């Protein structure tokens, strides 16, 4: 899951994949804005076949937070 997310973030944000670490904050460290986050969440829903709960998405800060949320939804 982490590898897939890293590739999606790198493609969407136009950054090198090696800049993406589990503890990197998506907005603060990777330079995403709110539109980037919305687009990423929509892409993840399509890619993973899940619906991300809005109340959970608001709590997501780091790359690992996204991975944890996706893994919990796929159980």
Mean pLDDT: 92
Annotation, overall tally of beta strands: 0
Helix content: 55-70%
N to C succession of SSEs: HHHH
Q: What radius of gyration results from the CA coordinates? A: 11 Å
Note poorly predicted spans: none
Please state the structural category: mainly alpha
* End-to-end Cα distance: 13 Å
Question: Strand content of the residues, in percent?
Answer: under 5%
Number of helices: 4
Largest sheet: none
Shape, please? globular
Structure report:
The chain is mostly helical and 75 residues long. 56% of the residues lie in helices and 0% in strands.
What's the arrangement of secondary structure elements?
Elements: H1 2-13, H2 34-48, H3 54-57, H4 63-73
Helix pairs in contact: 1-2
Observed structural traits:
0% strand; 4 helices; 75 residues
Give the structure's gist in a few sentences.
This protein is mainly α.
């Amino acid at each position: 899951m982490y590898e897939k997310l890293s590739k999606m973030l790198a493609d969407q944000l136009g950054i090198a994949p090696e800049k993406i670490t589990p503890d990197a904050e998506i907005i603060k460290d990777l330079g995403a804005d709110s539109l980037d986050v919305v687009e990423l969440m929509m892409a993840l829903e399509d890619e993973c076949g899940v619906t991300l709960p809005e109340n959970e998405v608001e709590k997501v800060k780091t790359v690992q937070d996204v991975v944890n949320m996706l893994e919990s939804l796929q159980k």
